[in-house]
């Protein structure tokens, strides 16, 4: 990848804006497409070279090597056809939608000869929204799934993978249907269970329950705060896999209910869960992100780690996890994990005051 590479990003909210930001840091030419407000903000942040509104997509995608569609899920499906019509031959088009079979099927029906489409899903995000929260390190150490169409040449997939690797992401190639099946079981099912568990408390309508629902209950139901505006399209576009995951879970729940008096069964359930829990990676991002991380850009030099941890220590903030995520050309990203959002933001402020480049991922 060189400075002659040209990328167009359609939809410059949090994900699209972060993509622009990360690419610009690699000296890649970036055109952004979005609302006039988003374009102006991106220009002020110097994360795009040129801005276009949605009526100018034809001009925006001209002479692009890569086009990323980063709008909401259903909107991605609607934009595929006009994008395919206006890009030039050998352009590689991708998206960032949370489900992949729906998008890839749409792409196969509309794709033009000489144009390539590879579905994409970065396992990165934040509870924040909008271009103003764009983060160039959002993709660091995140799994970034690519789902090529069946006839996509391997060299094309490799070319897109190389671009995404520049962002610090870990590329994984999956079949679209397999991606959606995995997502249904480890992301969509937990989301719905968290919503049901929270509503189970709401149905009690008793402040005694609410006042005691701290600790584990609050941790288990954190994702119940997610907006339905986001989940509506995810559920609609992956309903078969979600239904299958729910059916499997109902069977397990029925077995548990039937065996509550069976000490041996309950013991095995707990032991199996303890064993499985240990196999889940602690630090890398997956479908469900950690609660509060601070990413610090650091220079690879003696004493730097001690300096950063001392700053946080003297501000009376407790670090729960610490990890050097990547080292590239004398610099890297230090991941600091905190149990509370307040601690993460206080640590970030303390480091920023001393000139560190910091991003909070919460």
Percent range of helical residues: 40-55%
Spell out the CATH superfamily of the largest domain: NAD(P)-binding Rossmann-like Domain
Shape: globular
CATH class of the largest domain: Alpha Beta
Residue fraction in strands: 15-25%
Give me the side-by-side strand order of the main sheet: 3-2-1-4-5-6-7-8
Total count of strands: 12
Q: Please mark out the parts with pLDDT under 50 across 5 or more consecutive residues, or reply none.
A: none
Alpha carbon gyration radius: 22 Å
N- and C-termini, Cα separation:
31 Å
Query: What is the domain tally?
Result: 3
- Largest sheet: number of strands, sense, barrel closure: 8 strands, mixed
What's the helix count? 14
Structural class: alpha/beta
Please state the average pLDDT score: 89
Order of helices and strands: EHEHEHEHEHEEHEHHHHHHEHEEHE
Q: Predict the CATH topology of the largest domain.
A: Rossmann fold
CATH architecture of the largest domain: 3-Layer(aba) Sandwich
Summarize the structure.
This protein is α/β, with parallel strands linked by helices. It has 14 helices and twelve strands.
